[in-house]
Batch of 3 targets.
Target 1
Amino acid sequence: MLRAGIVGLPNVGKSTLFNALTSQQAALAANYPFATIEPNIGVVAVPDERLEPLAKLVKTSTIIPATVEFVDIAGLVRGASKGEGLGNQFLATIRETDTIVQVVRCFEDEGIVHVEGSINPQRDIETIQIELVLSDLASVERRRERALKTAKGGDKTARAELAVLDKIQPILEDAKPARLASLTDDERAVARGFFLLTMKPTIYAANVDEATLSGNAEENTHVRAVREIAESESAEFIVICAQLEAELVELAPDERKDYLGSHGVEGSGVDRLIKSAYSLLGLMSFLTAGEKEVRAWTVPKSTRAQTAAGVIHSDIERGFIRAEIVSYEQLISAGSYAAAREQGLLRLEGKEYVMQEGDVVHFRFNV
């Protein structure tokens, strides 16, 4: 399961956003630093508008969406890489995630203290980035020491590591994230073994107040600052009002759309964030649909059919014969499996078939 860590300075709205994401009040949202000490963890459904129509088509009431695990990590402060605050503990938790959602405060509120005394998104992002970079630099230096000793004996793996470290270390020394290093696919595979914090794909979430969200958020100078940084790093960027999203949780699902509309907003920022986190690592969903259940299954893009079958059960992968596939759109248009078969929309694919987003699949196998 994809694991996304929510990070940021204290009092920027991380726990409020986590509560909205998980549709519960599990995280303590309080007006003081370190309200969150132990990381809160919540499993969140990936919004998928295809599942309900598909369930109606096959006449089942059981729907199982794909999921993302979000971790609400306590606020980082200056010196975290040296153990300030509860830095070492927090950095270790970040290391265990697949992607980072950095919440950046872009709203003014005298009633909510800012750890730095003022609202400055660029400074706040740099504070987090420097702590992650310093932690990575320490890791890189230790890795280089080990690789140098091994490389002297002619070890090819150690030499490959040194070549990648030579590209990454100057980036870190320039106080920039390691993900900006120009690496080949093979070099990126080597770099993954270093478990660097700044190699993790990042989403910058500009947390604004309701007035800014209802107006033109792009005109807000704080929001623009976050967007510019995200664009310079080729990172994902969204604007979100964590407080508004938390208020949505208290409403019935059919009331949420009207409430968003009253604020001039078309859709939930939380939904956009979840989808961004899901797609950031190059993941996609294929679907299965039958009388028992309709379900979305998560696989990396470019996954082949036999490997995808193993996500459901290893026996299906081992005994794979064929995959019977129809696209979601074609199946819904046809109205039933029988009609789709009559129209020649269902097709049989072999183990080398590359799965596509929205494929509705029935795997034939024999063990």
Target 2
Amino acid sequence: MLFYDTELHSCLMLGTAGYPSPAILVDAIKASGTEVVTVSLRRESSGAKAGQGFWSLIREIGLRVLPNTAGCHSVKEAVTTAQMARDIFATSWIKLEVIGDEDTLQPDVFGLVEAARVLCSEGFQVFPYTTEDLIVAEKLVDAGCRVLMPWGAPIGSGRGLNNVYGLRALRARFAEIPLVIDAGIGLPSHAAQAMELGFDAVLANTAIAQAGDPAKMAGALAKAVEAGKAAFLAGPVQPRDMAMPSTPLLGRAFLNEA
């Protein structure tokens, strides 16, 4: 799948926040087989040495970095953070977050569209963290976004896909746009379900970082996204309201009780 002009083979992206140690993070990354990790600018710029050590670690692994504007609550803050991230991480990729609600961490979709328009005009390749709303998605695409990252559920909730109907409608409407489920994944079954709907990738952080064994969970999620993708490509049967016999009636033997 092409994300802007970059071809990725892994369907799993990893967040890098909240791991017990850098060594555990590295183990999880390796077990996941991911090619992309998200990185918060605030981690890099906070506590100089800690941030620099983390960035050096990511560079040594050789992964594609997707900086994000996590924690930004306004257009100005998100745009400024993105501009700084481009200088620090030397990439035009940016995961754009403009948070509108402190409790649910739901995106401010009005600010998100405005910030996306500004960043796309400046040459950024924007990965917007959004909802499953079709109208918002249309406006993001019109602003220049060529990838959409709808939430499955609130960030860190582990609730899976709260609105399967809405996500399925989004997939149908934007058949040519890469779609990544971002936020809410808690179990491998959630990731598999997203891929079975036809999504192109899943981004997971909390489900792995806070697991009892992050590396084992990362490996399980990697298998789940591949299984879900294979199931989607296989063309699964559609749910029916009535039973349908798997054995044909033609040729069935009947007993003569006369």
Target 3
Amino acid sequence: MTDRRPTGRDAGRVPSVRAVRVLLTGAAGFIGSHVADELAARGHRVIGLDALLPKVHRAGSAPPGVFTGDVRDASLLAGLLDGVDVVCHQAAMVGHGLDIADAPDYAAHNDLGTAVLLAAMHRAGVGRLVLASSMVVYGEGRYRCPAHGLVRPTPRRERDLALGRFEPPCPRCDAELEPMLVPEDAALEPRSVYAATKLAQEHLAAAWARQTGGTVWALRYHNVYGPRMPRDTPYAGVASLFRSALAHGEPPRVLEDGRQRRDFVHVRDVAVANALAIEGVLPPGAFQPVNVCSGEPRTIGELASALAGRCGGPSPVVVGGARAADVRHVVADPAKAARVLGFRAGVPFDEGIGELADPAPITSR
């Protein structure tokens, strides 16, 4: 159940925590800018870096205090890492990556960029990393078959999707499966180019930790929404796509039957999770993956209906169909985040959707 405690400046605050110097990559982005705000409110010193990729940063200029540059520039990193205590790595090329022709760009930004950053951290003697990972590393969620217990479904069949059969069947008996909460020790099976690069980031960071004695928090974000969401770009998430349609007087178009389940977590809660990880302590060589989620599953149809209702727009239209890399249900288990990080989401869904319904917070930033 979602905790309704305050978020942002007051949530998760640890008054006795020593202020640290943080290199924040992707600092001008949707999530990164909120992380920067949260860290500054807690008294930490933030050095921001952002490549300002045109596809997401249409304004083309960095906010005050953010250096413009590429995380793959080792000489730039050498200067920025001087005196840094911890790196918070948000920079990434995001999206489904459905076209395999995009694979070199995804690998270059996400994986080569992470490798260059880790090498630069080692040279600079910086041994603490907070990594922005993603729910996409899981692929499909966790499922239970009535006859065979926990099973791993195979990718959904095109013929089933064409007939409107969206639930993945048991790979052993073809029975309908029950979706379960996904814990951090679930099998990892990326199903898109983007997902593959996010898992590769985790592997690189884990290897770096083992080889250097560094520490890594890998924060597996679920569906993040809120102010400053990218709009009308390849970086836009489903909530932003629905909001953009409503802003144009059009109904949100919901794929499949609208019953696919996700966990929508507000961006200010995600910023708090990052701050807690930056302030947290791990033993040398530790790699700690953590779901960052609300703990309250919602269907895509519920999201579309809630937004349409708050915007006073047309009702959602269920259009069927499914994209090749889409999965049916991914619903996170929040227990570990509460246990090891002290994180519980604090922004209720209705409050967050009401905020998103206001067109002002959504920007191209």
